[in-house]
Amino acid sequence: MKSALNPLARSSQNNYYRRLFTDCQHPLKNFDSLAKIESFSRGQEICNAAQSVECWYFLLSGAARRCAIRSDGHRQIVDLLLPGDFFGLAFGEQSDATIESVAGNTVVASYPRRRIEVLADSDPKIARELREIAFKALSRMQTQMLILGRITATEKVGSFILEMAARLSNGDTEAVALPVSRYDIADYLGVSVETVSRALSDLKRRGAIKLLSTRTVSVVHREVLEDRERDLKAIGRWGKLAH
Amino acid sequence: MKSALNPLARSSQNNYYRRLFTDCQHPLKNFDSLAKIESFSRGQEICNAAQSVECWYFLLSGAARRCAIRSDGHRQIVDLLLPGDFFGLAFGEQSDATIESVAGNTVVASYPRRRIEVLADSDPKIARELREIAFKALSRMQTQMLILGRITATEKVGSFILEMAARLSNGDTEAVALPVSRYDIADYLGVSVETVSRALSDLKRRGAIKLLSTRTVSVVHREVLEDRERDLKAIGRWGKLAH
DNA sequence: CGAGTGGTTGAAATCCGTCAAGAATAGTGG
DNA sequence: CCACTATTCTTGACGGATTTCAACCACTCG
User: Fold this and answer.
1) Which pLDDT tens digit goes with each residue over B153-184?
2) Angle, vertex CA B172, rays to CA B219 and CA B76, nearest 5
3) Which nucleotides of strand D lie within 7 A of protein CB?
4) Which residues contact B100 (CB under 8 A, 6 or more apart)?
5) Which among B52, B67, B70 is the top mutation candidate for probing chain A, defined by the most A β-carbons within 10 Å of its own β-carbon?
6) Per residue in B25-69, pLDDT tens?
7) What is the reported pTM?
8) Cβ-proximal residues to B193 (8 Å cutoff; 6+ apart), any chain
């Protein structure tokens, strides 16, 4: 237990998390008893390359980031983990990525990898569920690659907001609470912090979003974030030409 | 069989591919008898979203691209498939990606997804191998995400060349035969065609690579492609300052 | 031969990263 | 609760990098 709380509060907290865990539906439900529940404060390392070989993780609350340091010294966030996500599966051996918590109160259940694998060998249903989990991770990465491939920074930020809306609030775009700082968004999207900030201001000025607080976004015109950045621009040019 | 060859040549070709197949080592080796071997000419669609639910594929020779069309009309290449790669696993249901062959003579083995899954249920070894395949796909995507996150276009192109060298010729950098056009490279790296072309010219001018033909690259100074773009620049600046 | 595709290069406008400064917010200790 | 500090966020200015638009060359295929 890496929490900074005192032992008493810790144990009470732990019980609370355990309840939260048992109430939660997920593919490895039957192994709740094997899982160890840990709580992390903001910025703490959940696991590094060495540990990730031994455990698989399930994120209960908060948020976490999987980081890699590029050779040019820049940090890159390769995956953003939100409640309901599994992680730690992909890297059989290599992968120097470390996983850190980003939100204040990040709770994680960790499963002993070896034991789950042995169980999977004897129960095809579990094996199937593990596959399902891996496929979901693949789908997450593909979504992000589509965002990273987008051309303008405003498009990237727009897609990011919509992704968060979809993953956090099941598509509700009234009030999306971004779980990460601008710096994290920047490293996730492959742009600079200033550009993220500017893109948000830009979207706000154009009335596409409202900033309820610095980290809470309300989507007003989904279309603008969604895609047609370019088309709208073209229409704008047409308008000028017509005039 | 979607090949454009006449029936006679087709069958002879097919036998050749079948031999090529049985000589090849891969995790689903025991199911060669279940696999259907197909050959595709350049630009042909191997499978679309609907079909990918039914089959898993193994690429024997040639190359293929997994594409998604973004809402702004731009195509993006989400994954590049080379000999030895499995594909089609990730997308249980959604994913509007289509897979097209990019090389002239692309040969693919397709496994009936349902039957493999049933077999996996009865044999844990197969289930394990399927997981292995999924993890390999995850690793591929992560590699690309690190490339996409890089800042300058020259770095992206450099990383791309090294990735191709590693995947195609087992790290041999003497003569890397790029299996795709500049347009494909551009859509894969998220930059424009002209930028790819310029980056290659730039690397050539600086003596980091040689272009044996338009699509065959020889790596002369691996360090330049590898990473230190930025460091070298910094040294350059220092040099100026010292001067 | 002409049309089409793929590749390269140039010039202009735009976008973004960097540097720098300020504003807003959170965290800390008194 | 307040001051004080550190962090996070925003905005401006500037230069460099990339996109876009355009022209041109090489090659293939009918």
Assistant:
1) 999 999 999 999 999 977 788 899 999 999 99
2) 75
3) 8-13, 17-22
4) B43, B44, B45, B46, B64, B65, B67
5) B70
6) 887 777 778 899 999 999 999 988 776 678 889 999 999 999 988
7) 0.86
8) B182, B183, B186
